Amino acid sequence: MLMDLYDPESFRSSGHRVVEALAAYLDSARAGEVPVLPLRAPLELAEQYQDSLPLDAAENAEAEVSRCLEQILSQSIHLHHPGYMGHQLPAILPLAALADLISSLLNNSAAVHEMAQAGTQIERQVVRWLCAAVGWDQDSDGILTSGGSLGNLTALLAARNHATQGSAWRQGLRDGPPLALLVSDQAHYSIARAAGILGLGQDAVIAIPTDSRFRVDVTALSDLYTQATQQGKKVMAVVGSAGTTATGAFDPLRAMGEFCREHGVWFHVDGSHGASALFSERYRSLTDGIELCSSLVWDMHKMLFLPGLITAVLFRRREDSYGAFSQEASYLFARRPEEASFDIGLRTLECTKRTMGFKLWFPLRVHGAKAIGQLVTQTFDLAHEFAALLKAQPDFELAAEPESNILCFRHVPAALRALENAPDRLDAHQLQVRQGVVASGKYFLVHTVLRNKVYLRTTIMNPRTTVEDLKGLIQAIRCD
Amino acid sequence: MLMDLYDPESFRSSGHRVVEALAAYLDSARAGEVPVLPLRAPLELAEQYQDSLPLDAAENAEAEVSRCLEQILSQSIHLHHPGYMGHQLPAILPLAALADLISSLLNNSAAVHEMAQAGTQIERQVVRWLCAAVGWDQDSDGILTSGGSLGNLTALLAARNHATQGSAWRQGLRDGPPLALLVSDQAHYSIARAAGILGLGQDAVIAIPTDSRFRVDVTALSDLYTQATQQGKKVMAVVGSAGTTATGAFDPLRAMGEFCREHGVWFHVDGSHGASALFSERYRSLTDGIELCSSLVWDMHKMLFLPGLITAVLFRRREDSYGAFSQEASYLFARRPEEASFDIGLRTLECTKRTMGFKLWFPLRVHGAKAIGQLVTQTFDLAHEFAALLKAQPDFELAAEPESNILCFRHVPAALRALENAPDRLDAHQLQVRQGVVASGKYFLVHTVLRNKVYLRTTIMNPRTTVEDLKGLIQAIRCD
Fold this sequence. Notes:
The structure is a homodimer of 480-residue chains. By secondary structure, the first copy, chain A, is of the alpha/beta class. Chain A folds into two domains: 15-45 and 60-107 and 368-480, Aspartate Aminotransferase, domain 1; 109-367, Aspartate Aminotransferase, domain 2. Chain A is built from 16 helices and eleven strands. Chain A has helices at residues 8-30, 42-45, 61-75, 94-106, 117-134, 148-163, 167-171, 189-197, 218-230, 253-263, 300-303, 358-367, 369-391, 414-417, 423-440, 467-479; strands spanning 141-145, 179-184, 205-208, 234-241, 266-270, 295-299, 311-315, 396-398, 406-411, 446-450, 453-459. In chain A, strands 1-7-6-5-4-2-3 form a seven-stranded mixed sheet, with helices on both faces. In chain A, helix 4 packs across helix 12 (358-367). The longest helix of chain A is centred in the first third of the chain and has 23 residues, at 8-30. The first copy, chain A, is globular and about 65 Å long.
């Protein structure tokens, strides 16, 4: 006699227990009652994960569920803790997790309309909302996909196919002029990776220098473009950032966009982090000119506070939304062309495609876009306050004024100030400080390297973090 | 005054309500009390999704959550309905959805160990379990990624980099011998797509003919390999299927693997659908020889009954697991080489990486691998019973004997039998039958094209489907 693994009663009782445990967890995490990161050495922790494949059912299913959940909670990083200010993973809106549960249980696939009628319609609706936020009209379009790296790959694939008029897709890249990409030297690594994946090779990436605030130098862009063209290269796309990864800087999108329009070149904007400023009344102006781009990548699992993965790839011209992929799969797609836009899998890498729109649709419908935009404003504001605080201290140096919610800085205590000529010692100090602070369990921050110097890096990803937390971080850095 | 969008009490109360609603839904879906697909015309349904971006909060949050959920439930396809036998999306194990909720709320990112200590360790543990199921030792390794298409792309990227010794990654594909892929003519479209994406061009795909049961003809493979080599091409990989998409056929993996070993060529197996036969005592032998492959893609969101997306990309040699990507991101990854294997993002396209291992780990620990393997056995068994049933009918023709849980067949009633020379009419009949049955709301099946003929296609993806349901389907087809 088989167990009924599908029993609704078991789902009901386990479901209520999991919800209770997660609600209690959320309460303690946001109160800072747990260490933000219960840091463990990977090799040591691995000893707990040596069991071989469990063949038989647990003796007590409920107890095993609780045991598994406890183990995960006690070993995870807690993004709802006010001391979390590390990588760009947000304290997610709890409602979005419930919407995600609905996606999981129904398991509809938004690649084909009939396999996810609500999922497809909701994806189309939220994509329209996002396009409208960019400032685009009905001629724009886009899709949701599994993360910013895949989003950048998808957009650059469309650009590559556009530049080669489809010949690369069919015949490959052996013939024709060599393709090049003009990319900010601060761009995310997924752009160079995309060049590697797409068969251009990473050497096809030409780095555009950035100014003291890490924003693309448009004169340099122009010079490099001319140079590449004179060398017989075809510039397939210019890539700017709306929020660079390391420092959250916004490139001069209007000037870049106008340059690209003038030269008839594809303009891709990686807005993974910062496109969400479009939802903030106060900070929307950072994105000025973003509407000039050909393609835009926007991670909702960053500054719209949703669980990963949910990335929008948006195209100013609808037909470009069909440019990345080209295929036939007779068993899958609608035959009537007027319905093709409802079979989203024609335009995404994913064939099985999670209904990821739910987790954006629920918070927008329940909380509204203004409230979510205020969370963006709040985190950006706080980073600016933090910068002002640090500037008032003699022993801290900023990498640059912040533009968004990312701030990079160095701790240079008096005893080390004389070591400005011994950069290794100062770099080592940052790493050591970071390690000590993280090990304390009170704060979580990261580090980055900017122009060959190590910096501490904070990103305010939790709207419940306060200026008091940041003052505490300053003290923790000093005491370490 | 801001609303508290993070209030644990709201999460608790909404959470319990969502669990109740989903448990009730599960109950009615599996009892077949709802139409399997409440079919709507895409353009007509779209009229319900025309509202512009909601700016303000809903007046009653709880009521709005319920309204959103009801709308989704009433418009979705119901995979837990016993009449669902369409595309390869399973009736998921409800426990897996709860594990997925934990992933969503915690939002840890399994690209970097400290950003998901439990998530990373669990991914490593389940990958080891899967490698062991293949029959591999400690020298194998792999990762989890966002779907089979991305999995195939990742594996073939590793193969491309291997074949070009990394030069393609750096310098692109302009130089060196042209690369080719030898691929079953029944392979999933994501393989040809990968050739398009990777810069080889889809023309680099050489189709290997298949036999009457849609399995690769190894003699033809050998001939085509010789021919390609004589033409100066470098065969980058041979691709076989463990469960083809259209008919669920298993290629002769041992013979293909031995051929590849002999010729020193990368052997990739797309086991998206069928690798889960490794968990079934009765059907494991279908995968005979799978352990000879260089890389294997295995979708857990197909025949391990998990919600999408969770795909394993496994490599026989650990070092190949690092072969797809190559990059530096100073702010992200561990500096100590012995810890590099814990920063999984070095080996995945994803940079933000959902902790997708949870949804496999919970069912294996709670239900055990045997019980899940029995579900595989049950669905495969049922497809064989269905084939026997159909063969006993005068008005049905099989495309081929089934090997797994996919069965393709045609309805050829006496009145149309004379039309064997008017294939269009017979094809049209299949499409018409399919449309009628689906519109009835009692069953959901799909169609496919095999050797220029249209077939009806069923895949038993719900272990609660019975032989009575299949008899009902036969009647429904006849009556339509």
